Amino acid sequence: MAHKINDECVSCGACAAACPVSAISEGEGKYVVDADACIDCGACEGECPTGAIQAD
Ligand code: SF4
């Protein structure tokens, strides 16, 4: 299990700064979560201004 970022992402980068394990990086047109690194803490969810992050 890992958190996922959907197409509502506007690539602001707020989530990447909040992730304690640096699992979030900029991808093609949106940010992406590295499912292998994510520990499902949920810290990124509240940081997203468009609500693009959800638990998988
Ligand atoms: Fe990082 Fe936690 Fe979000 Fe996973 S749930 S991407 S570990 S901030």
Report on this structure:
By secondary structure, this protein is mainly beta. It contains 1 helix and 4 strands. Strands 1-4 form a two-stranded antiparallel ribbon. A hairpin with a 4-residue loop joins strand 2 (24-26) and strand 3. The model has no long low-confidence stretch (mean pLDDT 97). Residues 3, 18-19, 21, 23-24, 33, 38-44 line the site of iron/sulfur cluster.
What portion of the residues fall into strands of 2 or more residues?
Answer: 15-25%
Structural class: mainly beta
Q: What molecules are bound to this protein? A: iron/sulfur cluster
Please give the count of helices: 1
**Into which percent range does the helicity of residues fall?**
under 10%
Order of helices and strands: EHEEE
What is the terminal-to-terminal distance?
6 Å
What's the shape? Answer: globular
Strand count, sense and closure of the main sheet?
2 strands, antiparallel
Low-confidence stretches: none
Strand order of the largest sheet: 1-4
Rg, Å, rounded:
10 Å
Structure summary, number of beta strands: 4
Mean pLDDT: 97
Show the helix and strand layout.
Layout: E1 3-5, H1 14-18, E2 24-26, E3 31-33, E4 53-55
Antiparallel strand pairs: 1-4, 2-3
The structure holds iron/sulfur cluster.
In short:
9% of the residues lie in helices and 21% in strands. The chain contains one helix and four strands, in the order βαβββ. The strands form two sheets. It has a two-stranded antiparallel sheet. It has a two-stranded antiparallel ribbon with strand order 2-3.
